């Protein structure tokens, strides 16, 4: 689809400098702009590219002062906030790209499944018995939905997502490719001989509330009993592991390659960096921030605390301790020097 500068300006309540009839059909970064692409400029670091870009339309702030003329092939649209305006366009662009409807073949949808209006089921989608799927749900090719699952309105499951039986996914969620929801929790009990393990049946489920986004190739294990829960607004990055009976509070974000062990409860509005490991049966208070690569071996019950290290403790204490860590070799040399001096005087 093509859009003119006039249409874009009307949508963003912007003013045009240049050709109002010029059209674009793609997006680009300003430094990589090409003919018929739309770009934006909000960071002053990239100001010089406004004079060299080949993008046909660039969204800029009204406050931008030009040192010279832009290329005659470049039309500017001035708005109050170029970054927010471009984000709005990206959102619309994503909606247009994801506006598929219908059922591709081959696919399997159980006769007992209930599906809403305006859904899209890609090729090789499997929808099991007694599944309930809301309106405007998008299931991309090779998605598997097990028996008795529920998927809310406007939720998107990208290619290869697997949702095991009995799991519930809310409205306006996005689950990226390759993620597994509801696989067995890691539950094994040692036998009397101590040489083998008996599998503990995992008969709970996973509940994902509204407005949650889960990155690609993440794993969210079903509960042993009860539910593993991701509360409203949770955001998980790629390759995150959520173990059985974990609860992640509202609007908490977890970066890639992090893992939360069984039965731990993480509060709301927490921020957890990449490669963080959190042990099982712990409690993390609301608003806690955990630095990347930290190891959490005990509960943190103080709201809003910032922690770091492995094992982790207060980030301020960690940074002061790190100064000492780095000084240990020099301190050791000084001790050896003093020891030699002392011995030489005996």
Can you describe what's shown?
The model has no long low-confidence stretch (mean pLDDT 95). It is flat and about 90 Å long. The chain has a twelve-stranded mixed sheet. The longest helix is centred in the C-terminal third of the chain and has 30 residues, at 315-344. Strand 22 (188-190) and strand 23 (197-199) form a beta hairpin. It is built from three helices and 40 strands. The protein has 346 residues and is an alpha/beta fold. Helices cover 16% and strands 29% of the residues.
- Radius of gyration (CA) equals 27 Å
> Which secondary-structure class do the elements indicate?
alpha/beta
Within the largest sheet, what's the order of strands? 8-11-14-17-20-25-28-31-34-37-39-40
- Sheet of most strands: 12 strands, mixed
What is the overall silhouette?
flat
Q: Overall mean pLDDT score?
A: 95
Layout: helices, strands, pairs:
Elements: E1 3-4, H1 5-12, E2 15-17, E3 23-24, E4 26-27, E5 37-41, E6 57-61, E7 75-79, H2 82-97, E8 102-103, E9 108-109, E10 114-115, E11 120-121, E12 126-127, E13 132-133, E14 138-139, E15 144-145, E16 150-151, E17 156-157, E18 162-163, E19 168-169, E20 174-175, E21 180-183, E22 188-190, E23 197-199, E24 205-208, E25 213-214, E26 219-221, E27 227-230, E28 235-236, E29 241-242, E30 247-248, E31 253-254, E32 259-260, E33 265-266, E34 271-272, E35 277-278, E36 283-284, E37 289-290, E38 295-296, E39 306-309, E40 312-314, H3 315-344
């Amino acid at each position: 689809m093509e859009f003119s500068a006039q249409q874009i300006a009307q949508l963003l309540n912007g003013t045009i400098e240049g050709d109002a009839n010029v059209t674009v059909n793609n997006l680009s970064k300003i430094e990589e702009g090409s003919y018929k692409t739309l770009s934006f400029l909000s960071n002053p670091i990239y100001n010089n590219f406004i004079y060299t870009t080949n993008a046909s339309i660039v969204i800029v702030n009204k406050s931008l002062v030009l040192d010279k003329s832009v290329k005659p092939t470049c039309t500017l649209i001035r708005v109050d906030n170029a970054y927010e305006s471009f984000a709005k366009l990206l959102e619309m662009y994503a909606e247009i790209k994801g506006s598929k409807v219908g059922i591709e073949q081959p696919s399997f949808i159980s006769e007992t499944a209930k599906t809403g209006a305006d859904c899209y089921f890609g090729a090789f989608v499997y929808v099991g018995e007694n599944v309930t799927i809301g309106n405007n749900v998008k299931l991309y090719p090779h998605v598997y939905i097990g028996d008795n699952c529920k998927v809310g309105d406007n939720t998107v499951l990208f290619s290869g997502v697997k949702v095991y039986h009995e799991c519930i996914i809310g409205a306006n969620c996005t689950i990226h490719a390759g993620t597994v929801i509801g696989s067995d929790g890691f539950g094994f009990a040692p036998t009397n001989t101590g040489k083998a393990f008996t599998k503990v049946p995992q008969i709970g489920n996973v509940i994902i509330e509204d407005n949650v986004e889960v990155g690609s190739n993440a794993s969210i294990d079903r509960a042993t009993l009860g539910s593993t829960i991701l509360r409203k607004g949770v955001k998980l990055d790629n390759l995150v592991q959520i173990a059985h009976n974990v609860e992640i509070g509202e609007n908490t974000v977890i970066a890639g390659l992090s893992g939360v062990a069984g039965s731990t409860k993480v509060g709301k509005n927490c921020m957890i960096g990449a490669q963080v490991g959190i042990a099982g049966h712990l409690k993390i208070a609301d608003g806690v921030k955990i630095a990347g690569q930290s190891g959490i071996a005990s509960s943190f019950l103080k709201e809003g605390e910032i922690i770091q290290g492995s094992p982790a403790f207060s980030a301020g204490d960690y940074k002061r301790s790190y100064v000492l860590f780095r000084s240990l070799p020099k301190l050791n040399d000084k001790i050896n020097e003093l020891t030699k001096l002392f011995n030489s005087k005996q």
